[in-house]
Amino acid sequence: MDNTTTGFLWSLAFITIAAAWAGWLAQGWKRRNGIAWGAGTFIVLSPLLFYVYATTAEHGPELYKDVTGWAVLGFMVALTGAIVMLIAIAALPKPKQ
């Protein structure tokens, strides 16, 4: 496996962790369907990862020649997505008992 493939897998790992965290947060904190929130987060972050990659690789293709560039890309997309999902989940009302 070359560095590009390994780096892309690191990016996917970061967004998968962010999606699992969002699902856990929705389930544990607001008593919502955690699987749906986690899957929705992953579905939103996957195209975002591609979009950010496409726009940054156009201007600086040397960023993704090693694993570090891919890992930073995945971490930044995952961090942004996790913060946005935290705000969205915090805005949800708790279900009535």
Overall description:
- 81% of the residues lie in helices and 0% in strands.
- It is mostly helical and 97 residues long.
- α1 (3-30) runs antiparallel to α2, α1 packs parallel to α3 (67-91) and α2 crosses α3.
- The radius of gyration is 15 Å and the shape is elongated.
List keywords for this structure.
97 residues; mainly alpha; 81% helix
In short:
With 97 residues, this protein is mainly α. It has helices at 3-30, 34-59, 67-91.
Ends apart, CA distance between termini: 52 Å
* Poorly predicted spans: none
E-strand count: 0
Biggest sheet features: none
Q: Which of globular, elongated, flat, extended, rod-shaped describes the shape?
A: elongated
**Rg calc:** 15 Å
Oligomeric grouping of the chains: single chain
Give the class from helix and strand content and strand pairing: mainly alpha
The SSE order reads HHH
Determine the strand fraction and express it as a percent band.
Answer: under 5%
- How many separate helices? 3
How helical, in percent, are the residues?
over 70%
Q: Mean pLDDT, nearest integer?
A: 91
Present the secondary structure layout.
Elements (H helix, E strand, L loop, with lengths): L2 H28 L3 H26 L7 H25 L6
Helix pairs in contact: 1-2, 1-3, 2-3
